[in-house]
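Methods: example folding runs. The two proteins below were folded one after another, and each record is reproduced exactly as written to the output file, sequence line first and structure-token line second.
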Amino acid sequence: MIIGWLRFAFIGYVGLTIVYVIMRIYLRSVRRETLEKRFDAGGIEGDRATYIEKGMAAYDRGLKKNLLWLIYIIPTVAVVVTLYILNFQ
């Protein structure tokens, strides 16, 4: 019984890790593209690469990157709550 749940959890977290990595790569590429387009539109002085690197550093410290952890948290909470409701109510 316990082995089955551990296997379920392991496979689930492997799947969530794949989703997390794909979303992180996608969101970083979208942010980089936005910064590149904003610089290319004009009105920003300085080096293009420096501007993009500063923008990406700000993204890495920002809220949007940290919200990606919800990919792990929400399904875990949903499974735990569902198990509690089904077994102890």
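Second run, written to the same file directly after the first:
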Amino acid sequence: MRLPFRLIYSKDYYLPIGAHVFPAEKYRMIHDRLLETGEADDTDFIQPAPASDDDVRLVHSGGYVERLAHGRLSAHEEMQMELPYSPELVRAFWLAAGGSILAAERALADGICFNIGGGFHHAYPDHGEGFCMIHDVAIAIRKMQKLGRIRRAMTVDCDVHHGNGTAAIFPPKTPKAKPLPSFSAAQIKAEVGTAASIADEDEVFTISLHQQNNYPAYKPPSSIDVNLPDGTTDSEYLAWLDQALSSGLRQFTPDLLCYVAGADPYREDQLGGLALTIEGLKQRDELVFKVANARSIPVMVTYAGGYARNVEDTVTIHVNTILAAQAIWRKDA
């Protein structure tokens, strides 16, 4: 092993969706890049098993699971998902969910673990949306809670798009505070809008940093929503992220932090409108990892979106997330 943690990966993560803005080949390219550069070797990777239907039903309705299993989605449901349905696609999503379950288990054992896939944060309990069929992160959380491995989890969603499925699955326990105003980095003095935490055994605290003027049109309230203006830069983004993490962790102590490390806040992303650089995105990852590591909170990482004009940039951003964690957990070893 070259890394101080494990990477969950399967060649069958590939999504059979044909010509599509979602780069289905990125999972293989991340795996191959790590091997080619010597940052990882074969022993760093673990193959997942698919989630069971019972696992998926911890989050998704039985009717929706049945329609997926038997190819009975309506035309509207397939349109919402924005992916061409096939049994092979169902198998790929079940496998990604199994990967996130395994990543959560290994994170609790090792301090951090990556699912080189997953992060399908737009899926709702009864339908898919935005390239997401089922919500692997939510399934992993509910599975860990069912097994008694955790009681409380926090999601930190740094995809450019709001985590609407996450917010719908794990609604705040108390009424949402007023929406965040938009400030520049130099003006961040206001309190981050949050929902007060209640110490329920099954509670999940959700944080979403996203471009306000972007998909989805309707954004259900998270515990903390940071609605970023178009063109947000590295320094502005990092200041907001630091504020959101500090505010969330003042109120809520999770047993597991689920980090959705989207690559699409990148300034060259086709589906984003923020202005982060590749270096700024690596600093984002470092900030999340340093905060969690300092508090001994296990971290499960998933990759979510990334649609750079040059797919190699997306791969670099995702690989850098692993390298950012490597630097912190190697020091900690």
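Comment on the second run: The chain has one domain: 6-332.
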